[in-house]
Amino acid sequence: MPVINRIAEFHPEMTAWRRDFHEHPELGFEEIRTSQVVARKLREFGVDEVHEGFSKTGVVGVIRGTGDSGRSLGFRADMDALPIEEMTGLPYASKTPGKMHACGHDGHTTMLLGAAKYLAETRNFDGTVYLIFQPAEENLAGGDVMVRDGLFEKFPAERIFGMHNWPGAPEGIFLHAPGPVMAAVANLEATITGTGAHGAMPHNGADPILAAAHVVTALQSVVARNVNPLEAGVITIGHFAGGHTFNVIPESVKLLGTARWFLPEVGDLLEAKFRQIVTGVAAAMGCQAECSFTRAYPATVNEAESTEMAARAARAVVGEARTRPLPQPTMGGEDFSFMLNVRPGAYLFLGGGRGPKEAMVHHPLYDFNDGILPVGASWFATLAEQLMPRGA
Questions:
Q1: What is the pLDDT of residues 124-140, one digit of tens each?
Q2: pLDDT, tens digit, for every residue of 317-362?
Q3: Is domain 184-297 in CATH 3.30.70.360, yes or no?
Q4: Strands 345-351 and 248-249: what pairing?
Q5: How high is the mean pLDDT of the chain?
Q6: Are 96 and 24 in contact (CB under 8 A)?
Q7: What would the 3-class secondary structure string for 302-345 be?
Q8: Measured between alpha carbons, how far is 3 from 6 in angstroms, rounded to an integer?
Q9: CATH T-level assignment (fold) for domain 5-182+300-387
Q10: By the 8 A CB rule, do 371 and 185 touch?
């Protein structure tokens, strides 16, 4: 079947909700307005329970269907924005300088709200749906915080499902795969300290900029010459800061970066080599180094049975031809992984239909495609109806 007719009817409402969220972006654990809007709408829809303030700014709604099967499912959407200055020029662009919904979490929240509205109206399932509106997915591991705060003890979902919009895939296409679909993430920091000197007399000092430049170059050998070519790993340095003027060798340089992997042994290798190279290269050039390799998110690993359940619901919404295997995992990270570590479940990608020259997520020109809102909402709703059927 196609998109659920009732959800298609309130597509314009969903678009208005999404654009309102887009105009008012809030960073992780600061989603005060967003969570208030979410909670208000859930109550308007007639959701049975609305729990606010879970893990600071999270919201959990509870919808009970008919019957007494005892079955339960969790559906999760993230709510936070990014510290990016929006450059789209859209009528509903961010009204908050330096903050932007550049990853589509405004759309994810809206799709789950759409499913909540439909499920609260129809109750065409036998069991309980837990609607998890999660804060702080970007870098702050809000998913981990919710789990540690007892999410599944208070809301005991048997399985957990989520999705992410994917601008690079055709509009309305679902992509799925069992096993790893997103990478584990570590945050890298290094401070290299030398001896400052006049830029015209470098022999009087120990140049931390030169040492740091060699560190950055040497780090690129880790994956190229240490990781099995059939496995995946990434080390990227994204921040290099040191010095203040033209002719002064500074005392120190700071590096920030990220590492990504799927297999635990690859993560261990990346950490060991990162520490060895930073300290060893710095020492060889007369400097000292302090570094940290902080593991942030584990790999997002889909449970096989749940993945097939998720794909079956997708096929019901968009058809067989538009429900496709994920060609390969992405090295992006996702804190839905913490939920999958304690409950079986699956995380799918929903194509956003942007062209190759249009902005991907985490870009100041990115904008969520409102055309897929009813598709995502229908997928959540169909999961509830398929996995907890009435009269089964």
A1: 999 999 999 999 999 89
A2: 999 999 999 999 999 999 999 999 999 999 999 999 876 557 889 9
A3: yes
A4: unpaired
A5: 96
A6: yes
A7: ECHHHHHHHHHHHHHHHCCCCEEECCCCECCCCCHHHHHCCCCE
A8: 9
A9: Aminopeptidase (3.40.630)
A10: no
